[in-house]
Amino acid sequence: xxxxxxxxxxxxxxxLVIPLFAxxxxxxxxxxxxxxxxxxxxKEDPSFQYFSxxxxxxxxxxxxxxxxxxxxxxxxxxxxxxxxxxxxxRTGKVxxxxxxxxxxxxxxxxxxxxxxxxxxCKWVLERxxxxxxxxxxxxxxxxL
Amino acid sequence: MKKxxxxxxxxALSLSLxxxxxxxxxxxxDDDEGEDHEWHSNLRHGYSKHLSPAVDPLYxxxxxxxxxAYQAGLLPKASWEKIMDGLDQHFExxxxxxxxxxxxxxxxxxxxxxxxxxxxxxxxILRSLEGATPLRISDIPxxxxxxREVGTRVLARKSIRSWAxxxxxxxxxxxxxxxxxxxxxxx
Lengths: 144, 187
What we know:
The complex is a heterodimer.
Chain A: H1 2-21, H2 28-44, H3 53-61, E1 64-65, E2 72-73, H4 76-79, E3 86-87, E4 94-95, H5 110-125, H6 131-143
Antiparallel strand pairs in A: 1-2, 3-4
Helix pairs in contact in A: 2-6, 3-6
Chain B: H1 2-30, H2 35-44, H3 57-62, H4 77-85, H5 99-111, H6 120-129, H7 141-146, H8 152-155
């Protein structure tokens, strides 16, 4: 019973804890998005407690061998250094900075966040990302 | 006597100023011999030299996020149809769109495809294609001919990378202007 209470308390405290990590203030959209992810992450794994900035960074840097292309892919392949411009691996098009501290247009529209998580997770991991992965990534991006 | 002389002088001066005013005010518009002038003179002959820019905001947002937003007049309608029908396998990438976005973009592309473009460029593209409907702009014979002097090593430069990256060298590509005089090949 006591255990359960602590878990519940932690669950409600997380929204208060997350902004402490953030360097750039979370947009209202990002805040709502994170709260949604938290509910989802809890469904995926009942022992879920926090999102982690470190795990977000690890995910950004981790290389995944693409099954068809036989080539390593990561978020970094195109986004390069998140606080400066990146470059699309195939088309050469310049990509605006990923970090909200360097690009205020990031994470301000829910449909866009959904779209790019879906498309880019499929490109790098060949599957959609879990809510935990997305949450980690998001708070890491805002910590930059 | 002296006073009346200065009076007439003043009168002449102000008169000449009034007469000259229209010339001074409008002299600006005359020496605008740049590309705009070219554009308009071409329009008067029923065609334009340059492609009309891809101004559709949805097209810019959805397609232009990953690659240069090619002007619709660079490909015939049948090519755009093939591309829009295979977005889930778009040059080996999944670029699928929601159905509303897809149909809006389709409408824009079809309405402005090479057949519907008044640009001389589009006409030359269509002529060189002889009915072919490639997926890649870089497969158009006219494109190949125009780029025949660009070597593979130049293309492989990090700042260029791909034929898809029009604006890497064509500094005015966004405005639909591909004239040689605006080319700057980056290091």
